[in-house]
Structures are given as structure tokens and as C-alpha cells.
Amino acid sequence: MVTFVNTGLEYDAKLFNGVSVAPFKYVALGSGTTAEANDQTALVTEITDTGLARAEGTASYEASYISVVEETFTATGSTTFRETGLFDDASAGHMAMRHLFSSAKNVDNGEQVKITFKVTKARA
Fold first, then answer.
1. Mean pLDDT of 85-104
2. Quick one: CA dihedral 43, 123, 13, 119, positive or negative?
3. Given CA atoms 12, 16, 17, 18 in this order, what sign does their dihedral have?
4. Percent of the chain whose pLDDT exceeds 70
5. What is the pLDDT of residues 25-54, one digit of tens each?
6. What distance in Å separates the CA atoms of residue 93 and residue 81, rounded to the nearest whole number?
7. Statement: residue 124 has pLDDT above 80
8. pTM score, whole prediction
């Protein structure tokens, strides 16, 4: 499951009426193992090297109220990641959502990792 954290809800509402204009399109990976929670504001342990540092993803509108952000990372060394997050800034900013994978993902030099966030807006 992906958790849309409290800050993500707040900034999504601000983005809607122009109070905040920074879109969520930066994808980050981390090695933290802490469970997902609504009050998280950052990844537990963000990776900043080995080709897996935060990067601007490709944002698009799929259809039927679905927005998508995708990023493909290419490892430049061996490492392990366990979490991912979506942010509105290249280096700091606000985290909209976080996902903790069920197990650690190991990557070696040259391997690619594709992360996709899909957000569906729907009526309650």
C-alpha cells in the first residue's frame, strides 16, 4: 500500500487553488524499514548516491482522473532500497506519499529500477 501522508494531503489542497504551485514529480528511494504512517514527512533513510538519488520523474495524465509520475533509475553501484517517496522538490520539499516495499530490493551496477506513482482522484 502507498500512504498519502498528511503533508501530501495539505499540499495537494494548496496546489488545487494555487496557494502552492510546486507539483509532486520528484521520486526518491531509501533504505529505511519503518512502517508507513500518515505523519511522515520524509523517507527514513534517503539514498543519495549509486545512481539512485532523487530525480525528477516524467509526469503525465493517464485518463479518468489518474495522474502518473514515473522515473527509471540506473544503478551505478550495488545497493539495497526498501522505500520510495514522491516529493515536490529536487532536494528538500514536501513528501506527498511514501511506500515501504514488503522486502528489500537489491540492485547491482547497471541494473534499472522503474518506480511509478499513480494517483486517482475519485468521489467519496
1. 96
2. positive
3. positive
4. 100
5. 999 999 999 999 999 999 999 999 999 999
6. 21
7. no
8. 0.94
Which residue shows C-alpha cell 509526469? Answer: 59
How many Å apart are CA 59 and CA 75, to the nearest integer? 22
How far, CA to CA in Å, does 70 sit from each of 18, 57, 58? 24, 5, 5
Three-class SS string for the chain?
CEEECHHHHHHHHHHHCCCCCCCCCEEEEECCCCCCCCCCCCCCCECCCCCCCCEECEEEEEECCEEEEEEEEECCCCEEEEEEEEECCCCCCCEEEEEEEEEEEEECCCCEEEEEEEEECCCC
What type of residue sits at position 22? A
- Exposure on the CB side of residue 68, measured as CA atoms within 13 A: 11
